[in-house]
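Recap from last week: sequence in, structure out.
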Amino acid sequence: MDNRPKVGVSVIITKGSRVLLGKRKNAHGDGSWQFPGGHLEFNETPEECAKREVLEETGIRINNARAVAFTNDIFQKEGKHYITLFLITEIHSGEPKVVEPDRCERWEWFGWDALPQPLFLPVQNLLKQGYNPFK
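Predicted structure tokens:
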């Protein structure tokens, strides 16, 4: 068994003064809100992963995603450990839609000061660092 941490990529998509969050389902963190994203694949850059995952999950195309932060996320109850790389970008084209209804209940835009609860652990850890995409 390989119990080294996995690498997650989380994409902060901004639109005006809001960010896109989806409500998770059928996975660890079920019912919590998170940015689009997923696992970094072998031989893939974080930027390539961000483009692929955002398109797969939301139908949105993005350009120019850039790294802004990372978190060390230990999910005690589930026995999972992730290093999550956060990238920020804007929409290039498309409107968010639920492309994977088995994994995401819905996508919504939120102001940074009015994020929904509960937040997915990596997002909680990002906030603990004081990160704000609008500063």
